[in-house]
């Protein structure tokens, strides 16, 4: 099993991270559901395979994802790197969202209760809060670390400038710095390469990359000119009442993205592997990537995903994928 240090910290994490957005009776728009029995089987298999990072958030399936994860890890708690996130609304009140001291303090205590633990290994800001001074946020997070309720802190979906501001704020206050960033990264979405990945390296952040399969496009499930299965993720999005969801799905099924998916399928055939494994292996082998977040809804999907962490792509395959996906896209 391969592990890596998370940024400038001493925390060692597996190259695969189990994302749990699907865990619960109902997923969000375009997100499938995974009941507790199946979620437990996925968690057990993931941990039994030697991987150690599980990522959730207080907003996933109305908090049910955290409850399921907490119950599932049980007596394994101390061997799991448990990560969760806060920012999104937890109620209708003016202070029920964001990165203020008021909201984060309540959000952390609620996550600890749902997870059935007295500490979080990695507590992350789910997104930037333009309404709260970053000094307040970083001082609050530092207090969590000093109290023992949190071991390390990270951020999600921050820009390069926001990362720098956060680290400077921590330094000004003599507090705890971020050790990680969660960001989208795949053959279809390489926008973090020019600025964000170099900023993470300079400022001591490891990366936990999400959506490595490009919303499912890179699994090879979607064929050019065919109507997506209504049961698939993109099929659900295309049939959603939400105009934003439908637009997002159409943006995924572009000619460029399907060209990339077809090239990944050709490479997979030549290697005796799968499109899924090739796409995940490509992300895992990128410079600056610490751990890759996978979000299986079934045990079969987990098995297929984990194959990507045992596959080492040859240099010529990487070059072909780099060229067709274009770093500037």
From TrEMBL:
It comes from the Bacteria. Keywords: Oxidoreductase. Pfam families: Aldo_ket_red. InterPro entries: AKR_Detox_Biosynth, NAD(P)_OxRdtase_dom_sf, NADP_OxRdtase_dom. Transmembrane segments: none annotated. The keyword Oxidoreductase applies. Signal peptide: none annotated. The keyword Oxidoreductase applies. Residues 17-325 form the NADP-dependent oxidoreductase domain. This is Aldo/keto reductase. It comes from Kitasatospora aburaviensis.
């Amino acid at each position: 099993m391969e592990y890596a240090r998370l940024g400038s910290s001493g925390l060692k994490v597996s190259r695969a991270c189990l994302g749990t957005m699907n865990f619960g009776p109902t997923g969000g728009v375009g997100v499938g559901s995974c009941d507790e029995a199946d979620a437990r089987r996925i968690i057990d298999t993931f941990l039994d395979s030697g991987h150690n990072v599980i990522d959730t958030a207080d907003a996933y399936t109305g908090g049910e994802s955290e409850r399921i994860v907490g119950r599932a890890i049980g007596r394994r708690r101390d061997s799991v790197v448990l990560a969760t996130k806060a920012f999104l609304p937890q109620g209708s009140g003016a202070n029920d969202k964001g990165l203020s001291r008021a909201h984060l303090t309540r959000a952390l205590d609620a996550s600890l209760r749902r997870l059935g633990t007295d500490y979080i290994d990695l507590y992350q800001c789910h997104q930037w809060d333009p309404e709260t001074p970053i000094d307040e946020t970083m001082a609050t997070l530092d207090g969590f670390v000093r109290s023992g309720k949190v071991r390390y802190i990270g951020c999600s979906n921050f820009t390069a400038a926001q990362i720098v501001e956060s680290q400077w704020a921590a330094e000004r206050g003599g507090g705890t710095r971020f050790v990680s960033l969660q960001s989208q990264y795949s053959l279809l979405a390489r926008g973090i390469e020019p600025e964000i990945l170099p900023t993470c390296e300079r400022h001591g952040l490891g990366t936990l990359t999400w959506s490595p399969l490009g919303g499912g496009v890179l699994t090879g499930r979607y064929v050019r000119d065919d109507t997506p299965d209504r049961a698939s993720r993109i099929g659900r999005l295309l049939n959603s009442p939400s105009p934003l969801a439908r637009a997002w799905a159409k943006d995924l099924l572009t000619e460029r993205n399907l060209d990339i998916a077809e090239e990944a399928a050709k490479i997979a055939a030549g290697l005796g592997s799968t499109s899924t494994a090739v796409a995940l292996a490509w992300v895992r082998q990128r410079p600056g990537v610490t751990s890759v977040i996978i979000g299986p809804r079934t045990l079969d999907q987990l098995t297929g995903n984990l194959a990507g962490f045992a596959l080492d792509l040859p240099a010529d395959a990487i070059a072909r994928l780099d060229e067709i996906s274009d770093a500037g896209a």
